[in-house]
């Protein structure tokens, strides 16, 4: 494999998801001349001392009114001690003393947001609103329906019904919607879906001329059609950029008996494994980013111009890639690399851009769901943060960038099986779950 790395940004990584509280453990070594503690400071609470005597003479360990039995050479003992208040405590052995500092725990951080249930839908794959719209919100269902909510109330009749042509098996379905920048006057919008043969379609529709709460099903104009060789890895995100072009994420197409994983992600004339930049008036497209496995989802930040791409990994890594404002043509390395790990040594990937952030599979982590950059004035603590989740977890995290790097931390809300994020015309953030729930991210008060 030949892989050259062009960019690698290093920063602060996330702490793991919170686990059940466990005692702090300190290793203790006793000898004739000293007592050695593996750490000199612990928070208030339960401390487990794992003691071993490495000296030739019998010795014992004592602290805060508790002590071990007399230990011979190489004998071990465990001492569990509860420290109810902060202070300095003497750790004693025969002939030596050390000071252990016990400190007050850091106060629990104030919540920065809460989730408000907006409604229940069937697999809400996308949540969007026309530019500057303050009353309307659209929720896309995998089976082929687009619902319109006006002032948070779902209308009885769906805005668009494509169930007769959409296949919603597995990862396939109606996957995204995007509204033209001039939607208020043109009524143009775009959808991305799999047909009954699971092939890909990007289609333009228009709002009904006589009813702004319905689409005109006869106005369909196809801009992109791609035959699939496997049912998965469809990508599906649509978003307009500040240049007026429509950006489209297409997955690598999956694999088959004929094609190995990522077979087309490095081929410049193939749509698979790419983000395309498309002129909606003509349907003419070009490759804007490549080397992606299944970008679910990307987000163009209207303020900075940077684009965050959440690329689902194979079996070891999930990653977030960044395309800085004004750049294009970046190659993110699939299938040569999965994150920063080698995946296919036989492939050739030139000028690879490394992910900004990656995390390993494990408990609560298997498939990243990309989100949005927060610009909701009601949520100042999250201003400018990029939100994302994972289908196997119930956490939502915020990635914040700085000149020296970045930080990643939990937002403090639980959203089971997140599959979509969205934003309305006021900048309010929405999260859709595979369980059907759609939440709005609100201030904690």
Write the layout of secondary structure elements.
Elements: E1 2-7, E2 24-30, E3 35-37, E4 41-43, E5 45-53, E6 61-63, E7 66-67, E8 76-83, E9 87-93, E10 96-103, E11 114-120, E12 124-128, E13 136-141, E14 145-150, E15 153-154, E16 160-161, E17 174-179, H1 183-186, E18 188-194, E19 200-207, E20 215-226, E21 238-240, E22 246-250, E23 274-278, E24 285-290, E25 295-300, E26 307-311, E27 317-323, E28 330-331, E29 337-338, E30 341-342, E31 348-353, E32 357-360, E33 368-373, E34 386-390, E35 395-402, E36 405-414, E37 418-423, E38 429-433, E39 437-442
Parallel strand pairs: 1-31, 2-5, 4-10, 24-28
Antiparallel strand pairs: 2-3, 5-8, 6-7, 6-9, 9-10, 11-39, 12-13, 13-14, 14-15, 14-16, 17-18, 18-19, 19-20, 21-22, 22-23, 23-24, 25-26, 26-27, 27-32, 29-30, 33-34, 34-35, 35-36, 37-38, 38-39
Structural overview:
The protein is an all-beta fold and 445 residues long. It is 1% helix and 49% strand. It is built from one helix and 39 strands. The chain has one helix spanning 183-186; strands spanning 2-7, 24-30, 35-37, 41-43, 45-53, 61-63, 66-67, 76-83, 87-93, 96-103, 114-120, 124-128, 136-141, 145-150, 153-154, 160-161, 174-179, 188-194, 200-207, 215-226, 238-240, 246-250, 274-278, 285-290, 295-300, 307-311, 317-323, 330-331, 337-338, 341-342, 348-353, 357-360, 368-373, 386-390, 395-402, 405-414, 418-423, 429-433, 437-442. The protein has a five-stranded mixed beta sheet, with no helix packed on it. Strands 12, 13, 14, 15 and 16 form a five-stranded antiparallel beta sheet that branches. The longest helix has 4 residues, at 183-186. The two termini are 53 Å apart.
